[in-house]
Amino acid sequence: MSTSTALDRFYSVIPAGGIGSRLWPLSRADAPKFLHDLTGSGQTLLRDTWVRLAPISGEQRIMVVTGRAHRKAVEEQLPELADHNVVLESEPRDSAAAIGLAAAILERREPGVIIGSFAADHVIHRDDIFRAAVAEAVEVADAGYIVTLGIRPTEPAIGFGYIHSGDKLTVEGAPSALTVKSFVEKPDQATAKKYVASGHYLWNAGMFIARADRILEEIGNSEPELLAGLLELAAAWDDPATRGPAVDRIWPGLKKIAIDYAVAEPAAAAGRLAVIPGRFDWDDVGDFASIAKLHSGGRKRDLAILGENARVLADSSSGIVISEGGRTIALIGVEDIVVVDTPDALLVTTSANAQKVKAVVDALKLSGRTDVL
Questions:
Q1: Which residues in the chain show pLDDT less than 50?
Q2: Distance from C-alpha of 251 to C-alpha of 90, rounded to nearest angstrom
Q3: pTM, full prediction
Q4: Neighbours of 330 (CB within 10 A)
Q5: Is the dihedral of CA 217, 218, 220, 221 positive or negative?
Q6: Please, where are the H alpha helices in 85-211?
Q7: Peptide bond preceding 92: is omega within 30 degrees of 0, i.e. cis?
Q8: Confidence at residue 160, expressed as pLDDT on a 0 to 100 scale
Q9: Least crowded by CB within 10 Å, which of 107, 209, 265, 313?
Q10: What are the residue ranges of helices labelled H in the chain?
Q11: Nearest to 166 by CA among 187, 183, 190, 142
Q12: Phi and psi for 60 in degrees, rounded to 5?
């Protein structure tokens, strides 16, 4: 790995938030997606993320931003996590606030720090290639760009945003770097096919690397009130006497906005966004169809079974069964089925409809059935 001074100034940030509502009833408010083992690795997605990042930044240079309710579970998963690197949100305010607060705290502690934000609940294989991509991104970030890691699409997926890449950037130590022409919202199927065929579009995996001061500058340009709140919080953060009151007073009023909108899109429009095409295997495990695909190696006729004590009988069936309830589940002649059995809720759908699970969660909220959320 490079011993550049830029990489020596690097800090990993893991936003561990969101419940993963498309993975209900497995993922809940008190047991969100990042606290589950969805890959069969024997450890949670959060722990997988830590193990992936520790060789890059070092264990003492990893910050986790999570909800107050998840502090105990996060610290159990990450016993090496330094106490001063745990940032607790009183309530979800989206990624610009979470990553922006981490940037503001770290910039006060260490002016000139370069940070990388990596979701706690994604699956990445070929870690050596991932580390090489991050090292390139750090060099580009040190040159003043906001940098994202784009994923070369393997299919015309409509569940992801896309990055329209441009010309090569000339930055020493970053031979893969490209300019970004624009961020594109989730397209329809026909448009996605055109994007993939052109070779100029990458999936947006939501991984950002930049100098902390540059992230704060971009937030200030697009959302000045949000920046003011983040800076006030950061100023109070490292004093236990002032932190709690500041969070209670300021955090609930911060604007809820994704970092894509507050930072990446404006930076792209101004020519200040770059991308490193990632050649590693990546999946955001966004729904049960994704989990089934991970476990079947893409073979649609296979049935994936998850659950330590799963009892499944199957004949001529395919898809995925996740069992936490302990009861026997029998499947006969059903294809691409999704069955998620928990002690208090049962989900049955198909891979093709897996993205619609979020609508069930929304309906449960409206009906007041928060006991199963």
A1: 1-3
A2: 7
A3: 0.90
A4: 10
A5: positive
A6: 94-109, 127-142, 189-198
A7: no
A8: 85
A9: 313
A10: 5-8, 45-57, 71-77, 94-109, 127-142, 189-198, 212-222, 224-237, 240-250, 259, 265-269, 288-296, 357-367
A11: 183
A12: -80, -5
